[in-house]
Amino acid sequence: MIKNRVSLKSLNTFSLRVYADYVIKVYTEGDLLIFWNRFVQKGYSVLILGRGSNVLFLEDYCGVILLNRIKGIDLHEDKYYWYLHVCSGELWHELVVYSLKNNMPGLENLALIPGCVGAAPIQNIGAYGVELQKFCEYVDILNLDIGEKIRFTVDECQFGYRYSIFMEQFKFNYVIVAVGLKLSKTWRPVLNYIGLDKLNINSVTPVGIFNAVCIMRQYKLPDPLVFGNAGSFFKNPVINCALMDDLLNDYPDMPCFFYKQNLVKLSAGWLIENCNLSVSTCGYASIYKKQSLILININQQATAGEIVTLAGRIYEKVMDYFHISLEPEVRFIADFGEIDSVQLLSTGKKVLRK
Ligand SMILES: Cc1cc2nc3c(=O)[nH]c(=O)nc-3n(C[C@H](O)[C@H](O)[C@H](O)COP(=O)(O)OP(=O)(O)OC[C@H]3O[C@@H](n4cnc5c(N)ncnc54)[C@H](O)[C@@H]3O)c2cc1C
């Protein structure tokens, strides 16, 4: 088979100049199976990609990229809920707009998150005090090896902060093909996040929250078309309360937020700003000035190596200074598949994730 060499620059929001052997847009579940079987049988690595807004390609991908473009939304309702069965290639933000236009509130805090619906459950997308899990009823996956569809209930998804079972299991042989959402007909605004807390709880509307979120995001976050990026590069670390008490003795103004039971969440942005990092750039890679959790590609000229070097320096400094290990939120994709990002940043070794 003759290989193509397809540019991925417009297919990853970091805008990195990398290539794959093949890129194929897939519009149906049947095609997913056909292309998967065809290429896997020939010994190719295969990667499923939505909109490339949570990946860092470290180098050219030696294999086939299947772009998920499976579309469609089914809707039904009862007295209490609207139920949406959303195919995984739909765009998340367009789904938020669609739900509000059809007077089904709930998703407004999650406006303007880039990417496909199918990727949303993987890291349980979240913003402005709300996470996907609040609305998720089920996730349908297609096991590509056996061609069987399986439904995960919300409990089986094991959602947590930027976490679900889909980060652990079936790594290379499943695709999320649809997500079931359940929106309550009793709407309650969520306004506890900084910025939204100024809105009047008695008069605010879902569209009012949507607009406020869009304005804040457009102000605070870099536009990937101007500065390539993948949103927050690192997760906010979750630590236990005893360790937090120790840290507060040394750093009384270190912010922390209750997570659950005995656990608190730290601000990775604050750790980065306060770890005595001497430089904030590496070549064309830089920490974004308005939000230090975001690494950007200046003039879309950075190499993956520059971004990794900068991320590695941040990782090392935060570790040296606070003894806290930052974990990337962005998924690192090497020549034959996803690698363990913490291993790469801490030891320089590329270890395939299994
Ligand atoms: C400017 C900006 C702002 C962002 N803000 C937020 C935010 O506020 N909150 C937040 O949570 N995230 C945020 N993100 C991250 C990103 O938008 C989300 O993680 C999004 O869900 C990724 O969707 P995608 O389609 O681009 O996934 P991709 O980047 O294409 O894929 C991500 C990973 O999921 C896998 N994958 C994708 N689709 C499927 C599928 N159907 N089945 C199986 N595996 C699949 C891929 O192989 C890859 O490993 C932001 C990103 C950017 C660029």
What's the CATH architecture of the largest domain? 2-Layer Sandwich
- Counting DSSP H or I runs of 4 or more residues, the number of helices is 8
Please, how many domains?
3
Order of helices and strands: EEHEEEEEHEEEEHEHEHEEHEEEHEEH
Distance between the termini: 28 Å
Give the names of the bound compounds.
flavin-adenine dinucleotide
Low-pLDDT residue intervals, each spanning 5 or more residues: none
User: Rounded to an integer, what's the Rg over CA atoms?
Assistant: 21 Å
CATH top level of the largest domain? Alpha Beta
Query: Structural class of the secondary structure composition?
Result: alpha+beta
**What is the CATH topology descriptor of the largest domain?**
Uridine Diphospho-n-acetylenolpyruvylglucosamine Reductase, domain 3
- Compute the average pLDDT: 95
Q: Note the main sheet.
A: 5 strands, antiparallel
Query: What is the general shape?
Result: globular
Strand numbers in spatial order across the main sheet: 6-7-12-10-11
Number of strands: 20
- The helix fraction, in percent, is 10-25%
Report strand %: 25-35%
> How would you describe the oligomerization state of the chains in this entry?
single chain
Report on this structure:
- The chain has 354 residues and is of the alpha+beta class.
- It has 3 domains: 6-68, Uridine Diphospho-n-acetylenolpyruvylglucosamine Reductase, domain 2; 73-220, 2-Layer Sandwich (Uridine Diphospho-n-acetylenolpyruvylglucosamine Reductase, domain 3), CATH 3.30.465; 238-347, Alpha-Beta Complex (Uridine Diphospho-n-acetylenolpyruvylglucosamine Reductase, domain 1), CATH 3.90.78.
- The chain contains 8 helices and 20 strands.
- The strands form 6 sheets. It has a 5-stranded antiparallel beta sheet. Strands 1-2-5-3 form a 4-stranded mixed beta sheet, covered by helices on one side.
- The mean pLDDT is 95.
- The protein binds flavin-adenine dinucleotide.
- Flavin-adenine dinucleotide binds next to strand 3, strand 8 and strand 12.
